[in-house]
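The freezer alarm interrupted the setup, so I double-checked each line after restarting. Inputs confirmed:
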Amino acid sequence: MTEHITSGAVAPGADTWTLGGKEFASRFILGSGKFRLDVVRAAVEDAGAQIVTLAVRRANTSQEGSILDAVPEGVTLLPNTSGARTAKEAVRIARLARELGCGDFIKVEVIRDARYLLPDNAETVRATDMLASEGFTVLPYMYPDLNVARDLVSAGAAAVMPLGAPIGSNRGLVTRDFIRILIEEIDLPVIVDAGIGRPSQACEAMEMGAAAVMANTAVATAGNIPLMARAFGDAVRAGRAAFLAGPGRVLDGAGEASSPLTGFLGEEDR
Amino acid sequence: MSADEKNVQVAGPETVPVGKRCRRIVSMDEKDMAHAIHADYGLDPMTFLPDMDVLDNGMFDCVLDAVEAYDPDAVTAADVRRALDADVVEPADFGVLVSPAAEPFLEEMAERARAERVRWFGTNIQFFTPLYLANYCENRCVYCGFNCESGIRRARLDEAQTIAELDAIAATGQEEILLLTGEDPVTSDVDYIARACELAAARFRNVGVEVYPANVADYARLHEAGADFVTVFQETYDPVRYAKLHLRGRKRIMPYRFEAQERALRGGMRGVAFAPLLGLSEFRRDALACALHAYYVSRAYPHAEISFSCPRLRPAAGAVTPNGPHVSEAQLLQVICAYRLFMPFAGVTVSSRESARFRDHVATITATKVSAGVSTGIGEHAHQAEEGDDQFEIDDSRSLAEMCAAMRDMGLEPVMNDHVLV
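Predicted 3D structure, all chains:
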């Protein structure tokens, strides 16, 4: 589906988006990997999140009080392939997610770098191709590269999830200009994933036209987690509304000349 | 070439002439050299035995050269301030953080360590328990209760006993297990350990091994059998001290032990753990060497999961306690915090050698994994008649349930498993 919505065409109240045939009103996706389980529930409720990611590697447990039990009903689980170093490993983990009853959504993470946790784009395209052909709704985590994003579209991705900055860094939209290119060129939801550290950064991503924003560390490391979760929810809604409203233009330099420099044109006929 | 092939491929070791000798021994003085070579029937601690894989990529010398150049007492408070104010702790600054000059900065180091720990691992704390399969050992390490000349009772679990132990541990709710043996490749050969890995993998989500250093093909075999993590303690990185403490057996060959983590990764293991046994030698130098060792391995194998263990020397039956300098709790914490600041993404495991009080607090500051329900004897989990003596004495003997409750009280989230074998 096309995510671009013409300014003013949709009332904010009716502003939903669709992934894998499911319709969502919330555009804030919460990661769960760094939380105490009792806090996950509070964070989901305060942020109004309808999608929560979870690592299959952590869900694959017989432990009582698993993450699967902590997510409130009605919230869509987005399992991820964290731990996969290759496309084949991502496929194996995705199948395991399905066996665990996590549904057909899968966030593809293929990472072979323990320090910065940067995604391997080439393997991500391969994994997306294989998983889409197995009927998964594939959301690939990727480094924002336009050609790769196009390959992901061709491979059957349901969205693309470019990183704003390295996972957990809270550095914000370091890759801003490249994410903007994806938003302009890719006809799939663009979900800004890693690196968002502040609600203001989430708001900016939404103003740029991102379909949704995901955060984990920024909420998990806050002093007051439920309050920060709410702040993110509010920021995402504000940014979305601003995008829909069509932001006023921003002028570089000193300002606009009150007498246009080209005002003399057309005088020759007088 | 796909990333499968690029990354996780098992690379064969380079072949080198038999009797390959590290140049490191030339840094020993004549008296040390004589002691090193003659103490063990001529076994030169710097010469690989003919059946040992040799990687010889320069890492060993690189680490030991850096340690030789390190003077902990030359570090000033200004150096510490600069290191702590930098965004990234560079390799050259690790020695600054473990110096005496950094001791007054411990609270600040702990605060920064906790911030990094939360950023990378949230409030998660993982659990595991070690299972001692056998305590036969061919080495003579003067500080260890398992050493070949100590008079302890020896035992090796057979398959039925292993299953009974594994089932007893699994019934407590553990999902991660670390299989250990004494270092005897004859009594506890690779086939025996591989079988134990298979039995463990059928009952646990995550299986690690802490056994004698092995060749790449052996690690590949253990990985195939279900193990994904390898722990090898270097004990000390001081070559003279190493030779004096490790008098017999294959363990005497110091560079072969040093290259174990790399061989494990080449064998397909997901992660490796590093540790000096703090207190065997000058702990600041050993901590620096260990940090650099892990750093260079992570540079060479960027996909590897790296972790540090942080054991201090404990008394053991059948062993002597060397007169190494005592490492205080504060100094141990300093080292652990320095690991976290230097490699914030690395796991840190704190041993049950330490007290419950210390472990509970360190878990909130920087540790990411703790053992629970620990027995270092052979056959104790299933209350099988205790056949083999313990390797060392533990301090924190709490059960898994007790540990989980304690960690929750500290605001942490117990995680039984964060691993998937692929």
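Quick read of the result. Chain B touches chain A at residues 2-4, 7-8, 115, 118-124, 173, 175, 205, 298, 302-306, 343, 345, 411-420, 422 (CB under 8 Å).
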